[in-house]
Amino acid sequence: MRWIGCTFVAYLLSLTMKSGIRYGAESLRWGILRALIKERDGYRCRECGRRAEYGVTWVEIHHLRRVVDGGGYAPWNLTTLCVDCHRTK
After folding, report:
1. Phi/psi zone of residue 29: left (φ > 0), alpha (ψ -120 to 50 degrees), beta?
2. Which range of residues forms the domain containing residue 36?
3. pLDDT digit string, tens, across residues 25-83
4. What is the pLDDT of residue 65?
């Protein structure tokens, strides 16, 4: 149930996101959305399975479909990747 609630909140936040704006309220929304996606994915890299431990924030958010290609900020377009896997994408 927690995952469903997290996804719903992330979806609501994604509806208000605008491409390319990273200041003020947009920055706050993006920060919350990132935290929700990390929580949803269990702080694990969805590619190799590595897990962030002891508060290390090496898990990054990756857009499956780029924003400029119409991907947007919807939760189903976002996933977590470790730094190594994110570099290869």
Report:
1. alpha
2. 2-88
3. 567 778 888 888 988 998 899 999 888 776 556 889 999 999 889 888 888 899 999 88
4. 93
Number of domains in the chain: 1
- pTM of the complete model: 0.70
3-state secondary structure of 44: strand
Contact 2, 65 (CB under 8 A): no
Q: Where are the beta strands (DSSP E) in the chain?
A: 59-63, 78-82
Q: Which two structure tokens, joined as six digits, stand for 5?
A: 């609630």
Q: How many angstroms separate the first and last alpha carbons of the chain?
A: 31
Helix (H) / strand (E) containing 66: none
Which residue is listed with tokens 């994915």?
A: 41
